[in-house]
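Memo to structure team: turn this sequence into structure tokens by end of day. - J.P.
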Amino acid sequence: MDDAAPQANSRPHVKFERLVKAAQNCPAATIAIAHPCDPVSLESAIEAARLRLVTPILVGPPARIAEAAAQAGLDISPFEIVAAAHSHDAAAKAVEIIRSGRADALMKGSLHTDELMSAVVARETGLRTARRLSHCFIMDLPTHPDALIITDAAVNIAPTLEDKIDIVQNAIDLAHTLGMSEVRVAILSAMETVNPKIPSTIEAAALCKMADRGQITGAMLDGPLALDNAIDPEAAAIKKITSSVAGRANVLVVPDLEAGNMLAKCLSFLSGADAAGIVLGARVPIVLTSRADALLTRLASCAVAVLVTAARRSRPADAMT
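Reply from structure team:
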């Protein structure tokens, strides 16, 4: 069977196809999939394995996994199954598999994100590091030349300035892992001027100064910026904003989860964008997918996890602690 990534629909998905091909050049990552008890979760695992992206370990109730496989006509016989009683148990056992060194990444199956993340952040038995956990969407927009990273639209509800330092650094590190030669970070707000009445503008200015002082590294930062003058050169020129980031940002840092969620969904539903997702800041990358995602989008999320895993293998052991 051909190892090419499947098309999600009729339009080209060049950015995501490029991600999958890049990940195929890396060693396959062993990935613990928590509670893969529906056809969508199993389809993702089997296709990612076929493309030599991952080696799945299926963690959940064996009877339910087998039932889902039979329902979809999927062969799961090549894969290890670790028995778990229910979804909470599956999340805990998947995390333990990673803590024992048997897997390189974690993936959400058919359980709630909160269930999985509760096991991840558990103080004594989880996967925390010194970094704040944060989520990045990698957006493939048909009308935009480059992929856009949006953070954080899924984990941190109302991040503080201290939280945003790690959120920004996680996104910068991911951008380098994905091969972005020049990382341009826009700290978004409702306007491009600092306004004491709008806290996100003050935090944006502080983050930029932190980058100037070397507290955030690896990218150019600018903010506050409104969305239009962050990604559109003409809009930035009209506002007379002159910087290396304005109009050319490839990383967008949102003020809070509500803003990020709305932005990502607007791009998906109104602009036809696809959104691969990854959680960073834990001991291993965590793949969060939605059952509504196209198969190629889910594979792109797996590909990102593979690339992050490969990058970590080449770093010192304490790079993320």
